[in-house]
Automatic annotation (TrEMBL):
It comes from Roseovarius litorisediminis. This is Cytochrome c biogenesis ATP-binding export protein CcmA. The keyword Hydrolase applies. Its EC number is 3.6.3.41. NCBIfam families: ccmA.
Length: 207
């Protein structure tokens, strides 16, 4: 069975300031977990930490790094390559060859010969998400994946997630919108917001 993620008593920081503390959760194969919480609470920081892009302050993250794929705010698209060249490139990076399912899932087949730089914002986002399908990775870590997507494209995305879960994959998704994925669990990270310095520590911080 593909491994998911287990997070235990995790504390994370951004710019040297603790943002979330005491966070624990598990994501098993076949499951999706949606992270919620207000702007700036630390969802992106959490995803970056789990993806291995920054170390935690304390706590444990158990996962196999070569099972993860992270899609952050930057789309990573090569503007001068066509849609299919972009996908072929990523497929090769991950040791795969077939891009047709990824093109179909995000209705990119009619756009496959268009330079990616000439796509609309939503089409670019669909290409960025199609990339997940050619990685063959089990655990998708997604930061605001639906930005710029219209209603139909959000449905394509939800369908792609559902198919991924059906195949034993898993997904950890930070999003403010309702994806229509009833099977996803919700984790509100708001209650794990790191406490500000106690007033007693205030002078100490300047000594
Ligand atoms: N490069 C940075 N350097 C220092 N602090 C940062 C940096 N990027 C973000 N922060 C701060 O870290 C905190 C956590 O930010 P983060 O991006 O993880 O929040 P978020 O929950 O993903 O927010 P949003 O819902 O707005 O995407 C915020 O207070 C933010 O201002």
């Amino acid at each position: 069975m593909p491994m998911g993620i287990k997070v235990s008593d995790l504390t994370i920081a951004r710019g040297g300031i603790k943002v979330l503390e005491g966070l624990s959760f598990q994501l098993a194969a076949g499951q999706a977990l949606v992270l919620r919480g207000p702007n700036g609470v630390g969802k992106t920081t959490l995803l970056r930490t789990i993806a291995g892009l920054q170390p935690p302050v304390s706590g444990r993250i158990e996962s196999a790094v070569d099972t993860l794929v992270y899609a952050g705010h930057a789309d990573g698209i090569k503007a001068t390559l066509t849609v299919s060249e972009n996908l072929k490139f990523w497929a090769q990076v991950f040791g795969n060859a077939d891009i047709s399912a990824a093109l179909e899932a995000f209705e990119l087949t009619p756009l496959s010969n268009r330079p990616a730089g000439a796509l609309s914002a939503g089409q670019k986002r669909r290409l960025g998400l199609a990339r997940l399908l050619v990685t063959g990775r089990d655990v998708w870590i997604l930061d605001e994946p639906t930005v710029s997507l219209d209603v139909q494209a959000v449905e394509m995305f939800a369908a792609a997630i559902r198919e991924h879960l059906r195949q034993g994959g898993s997904a950890l998704i930070a999003t403010h919108i309702n994806l229509g994925l009833d099977e996803a669990r919700i984790l509100d990270v708001g209650p794990y917001r790191a406490k500000a310095l106690e007033i007693d520590d205030f002078d100490g911080a300047f000594l």
